[in-house]
Automatic annotation (TrEMBL):
Region feature (Disordered): 490-530
Compositional bias of kind Pro residues: 509-520
Protein name according to UniProt: Phage portal protein
């Protein structure tokens, strides 16, 4: 529970904040911040359990800049995995529908949810969820922004959840307001509980929540006062939702997290794809990446020549070797096999170990992908091209399974919360919003689709073998079409394929040539005489 002058972040969530900071620095991928995080006195070096692994770390390792200047490169594998997770989930938009078929309600649902803005927000939240272990959703509204309620997404390290029997019962979202500095920090807290949202304002320090103040004491919360339903001295001002539901949900990235399975709160938060146990591998990948760059850097061709083959540039200007000179006739200062004097003139070209670096990095990358639940082909590590849906699914089987699992977490949160959002929308925007009578449903796109080119080859094969009807082919090519649109397309194709008869309305099976006598009916054919 929130109390004045409590430690911040709360001790119960200190582990989450610490873990999220490490995931964040790899997600961002800034080499300077990686050095600071794992450098002397950095958070990464003071984290429990790190001491034994320091020798494995690549970032933050002490290097004498005089003898070996730092030329480290970062391979953004962690960020690519988070982006892959979001792409597999939300690259094709989901659809929220009203199962009762209420047109007015469906139009309102389409206005709020089935839009590019909401789908873009989902994609953004999906990447954050993968990188930081989870994502919160909450219902918000602001008449100055839009004439409807909508769902807002909040990162996992900006909320304090309360669980009972593994179910979210309340959650407090917090944000730092303008005017905060290293000494004084202003925080706005929004506690979502059943039927209401409680607002409060605190002034403290970076490590202490501080004292509660009136909402009107800061410009960032002053505008909330007029929208409060009531004010309570103990909890602050609150807004009545008009719906006796919790207007917030949480989506874990992946469950369970073995490390926190005995913590009644943390066990529900899940684990990120940028996991702490993969951090040593991320360090090793960056080491290999930087080593390959060093090979290219030091692999410039070198020429070793004795003074006898160098050209004097004049007094005080030293000697040089012309790169365009083709013939050298001077004798040098070393003895050959026969005892004669000869010049030293040698070329040296260091090897660039591209293949060795690539193989080493691939081994580590496959380990990371296996741990996070993604197929190498999803990461562009195969030149094979999927020809059919079965092959596409087979080559991405691990990715498809992981994505379906994550989609269940998202569906369990978005379906109920979208319904609550529509209920609140009907209360706050009377005359515009429509409250649903049943829970809204989510239609997910197919995971691991065939390309249009692969589908066309399949249909060509069906056509050649006369193995499918026009209806089947159209349904296969356009999986997102409804039955009415499919029938219209089938009718157009059939009408186009019909060949008009040159003999008017004669049936196509009747022989129109008058020179060929018609065949007698079957029952009039006489048996041949013996």
């Amino acid at each position: 529970m929130i109390e004045a002058n409590m430690a911040w972040p709360p001790k119960a969530l200190a582990k989450v904040v610490e873990r999220t900071r490490e995931s964040q620095v790899w997600w961002e991928g800034d080499p300077t911040k990686l050095e600071e995080f794992y450098g002397a006195g950095g958070i990464g070096r003071t984290r429990p359990g790190v001491a034994g692994k320091l020798r494995e770390f690549f970032w933050g390792k002490q290097i004498d800049p005089a003898s070996q200047p730092s030329k480290k490169l970062h391979a953004p594998i962690a960020a690519d995995i988070a982006k892959l997770s979001a792409s597999e989930l939300f690259s094709e938009p989901l659809t929220i529908i009203d199962p009762t078929g209420d047109k007015a309600l469906q139009d309102r649902v389409d206005l709020i949810f089935n839009t590019p803005i909401f789908h873009g927000d989902l994609f953004t939240a999906g990447e954050s969820c993968s990188a930081l272990m989870g994502s919160y959703q909450r219902v918000v509204w602001d008449e100055e922004v839009a004439d409807n309620a909508w769902i807002d997404f909040v990162d996992v390290d900006k909320a304090i959840p309360e669980y009972k029997w593994g179910r979210l019962t309340a959650v407090t979202f917090w944000s730092e307001l303008s005017g905060s500095d290293e000494r004084d920090v202003w925080r706005h807290l929004e506690r979502y509980e059943k039927g209401k949202v409680v607002h409060s304002l605190y002034q403290g320090t970076p490590t202490n929540l501080g004292t509660a103040l009136d909402l009107g004491a800061h410009e960032g919360t002053k505008g909330l006062v007029k929208g409060l339903t009531a004010f309570d001295d103990e909890v602050g001002g609150y807004v009545d939702l008009g719906v006796e539901e919790l207007a917030a949900r949480y989506v874990p990235n992946v469950l369970p997290d073995p490390e926190w399975r005995n913590d009644l709160t943390l066990r529900n938060l899940g684990r990120p794809d940028i996991r702490h146990d993969l951090v040593p591998i991320f360090h090793s990948l960056d080491r290999i990446y930087s080593s390959l760059d060093r090979d290219f850097r030091v692999a410039q061709a070198k020429v070793f020549a004795s003074e006898s083959v160098l050209t004097s540039m004049g007094p005080g200007r030293g000697l040089s070797l012309s790169e365009d000179q083709e013939v050298f006739t001077r004798v040098g200062n070393k003895f050959g096999k026969e005892g004669e004097m000869e010049s030293l003139f040698e070329f040296h070209q260091p090897a660039i170990r591209v293949l060795e670096h690539d193989q080493g990095a691939e081994l580590l990358l496959r380990r990371v992908l296996s741990a996070t639940g993604y197929s190498p082909v999803s990461f562009g590590m195969s030149d094979e091209v999927a020809q059919t849906a079965t092959e596409a699914t087979g080559k991405k089987e691990l990715t498809v399974k992981t994505t379906k699992g994550k989609a269940r977490y998202w569906g369990a949160a978005l379906g109920p919360l979208a319904t609550i959002c529509m209920q609140i929308d009907a209360v706050k925007f009377s005359g515009k919003g429509v409250a649903p009578s049943e829970e809204l449903e989510i239609e997910w796109p197919k995971f691991a689709r065939e390309s249009d080119e692969a589908k066309s080859r399949t249909v060509q094969g069906w056509e050649a073998g006369r193995a499918a009807s026009t209806h089947t082919k159209v349904s296969y090519l356009h999986e997102d079409w409804d039955e009415k649109r499919i029938e219209e397309e089938v009718k157009k194709i059939d009408e186009k394929d019909q060949v008009p008869s040159p003999f008017g309305s004669l049936p196509p099976d009747q022989n129109p040539d008058p020179n060929i006598p018609p065949e007698p009916p079957v029952d009039e054919v006489k048996p041949a005489e013996e």
